[in-house]
Request: fold
Amino acid sequence: MNDGSGNGQPPLGEPRYLLLTTFRRDGTAVGTPVWCVRDGNALRVTTQGSSGKVRRIHNNPHVTVAPCDMRGRPKGESRPAIAEIDDAERSVETARLIARRYGLLGWFMLRKADPDRVGITIR
Reply:
């Protein structure tokens, strides 16, 4: 993910909700609002490993990201990025960071160890 340095675009920052758009094999865009946490120049999100977005990222790591509201309505410009599915250890760390960032609601949603949960790093 481009941090905006040197290209005239402001950095994406750390939006409360992120519209993560993945692409089907036929090129159809599928946008999903997700929680995120900043990790240096990357953003990290967590989701179910069996979700469609994970399958689509395995097939095509090119995604777009944009700040959005909780319903997925964009609140800024979309930016190209590359998504990578994290290993099990990093996925647990991502879930923990997101639970901490989103307070009581984050803790409640991510409180149980879920073997199907994976982290995604977006650069």
